[in-house]
């Protein structure tokens, strides 16, 4: 359970996300989708109940170590007026050009990056204005993947994309699930259709809204 002052956002919510799956959380604005993501990341704490990671209470986990295992893609475009490489690594000396290239490959960005005049060293423009919307989003996903996270969280990451580009991004996210656990907060139908599990937030509760059945 979680509330802001007396405004209850989540009331005795209980759900599980299996490792290696792709889960979307859907619901109206203000339903608590981003709050759930913030709780998983450990940015806020539940007022009651607990969050478990691999059966271990998040309260007992080193939050810095846990957050290093999370890649996060926000709704807002946060690209800098610098190179593709700099936007992926953000100057982290622990990340090599090879790490950035692999992240760009995994996000589906390498195809267009390698065709740019200066490749990975091409300047993307202020807020990525020299890139298309889909290209910007793939670079943002690459940034989130560069540190080899276990969990990838996306907050309305496809809301500004056209339908075709959104479907392409959904296919990329599906390909990432397995090695990664992917959680997408969204209003978009395409992301819900691509997911293994859909959780709907309504009236302070979380309810299963769909499950992808796969042949074995």
What's the short version?
This protein has helices at 33-41, 63-67, 84-89, 97-106, 110-113, 133-145, 163-176, 189-194; strands spanning 2-4, 7-10, 22-26, 52-53, 56-57, 70-73, 151-155, 181-185, 197-202, 205-211. It is of the alpha/beta class and 216 residues long.
How is the CATH topology of the largest domain named? Rossmann fold
Beta-strand percentage range? 15-25%
State the distance separating the first and last CA atoms: 36 Å
Strand arrangement across the biggest beta sheet: 6-7-8-3-9-10
The number of domains = 2
Structural class: alpha/beta
**How many strand segments?**
10
CATH superfamily of the largest domain: P-loop containing nucleotide triphosphate hydrolases
């Amino acid at each position: 359970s979680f509330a802001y002052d007396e405004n209850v956002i989540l009331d005795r919510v209980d759900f599980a996300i299996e490792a290696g799956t792709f889960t979307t959380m859907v619901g109206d604005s203000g339903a608590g989708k981003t709050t759930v993501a913030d709780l998983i990341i450990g940015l806020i704490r539940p007022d009651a109940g607990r969050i478990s990671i691999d059966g271990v209470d998040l309260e007992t986990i080193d939050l810095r170590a846990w957050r290093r295992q999370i890649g996060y893609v926000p709704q807002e475009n946060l690209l800098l007026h610098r190179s593709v490489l700099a936007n992926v690594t953000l100057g982290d000396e622990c990340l090599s050009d090879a790490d950035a290239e692999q992240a760009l490959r995994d996000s589906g960005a390498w195809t267009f990056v390698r065709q740019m005049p200066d490749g990975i060293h091409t300047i993307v423009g202020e807020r990525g204005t020299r890139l298309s919307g889909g290209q910007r989003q793939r670079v943002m996903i690459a940034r989130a993947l560069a540190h080899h996270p276990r969990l990838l969280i996306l907050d309305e990451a496809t809301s500004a994309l056209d339908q075709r580009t959104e479907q392409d991004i959904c296919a990329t996210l599906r390909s990432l699930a397995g090695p990664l656990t992917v959680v997408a907060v969204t209003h978009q139908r395409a992301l819900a259709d691509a997911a293994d599990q859909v959780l709907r937030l309504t009236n302070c509760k979380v309810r299963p809204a769909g499950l992808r059945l796969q042949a074995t």
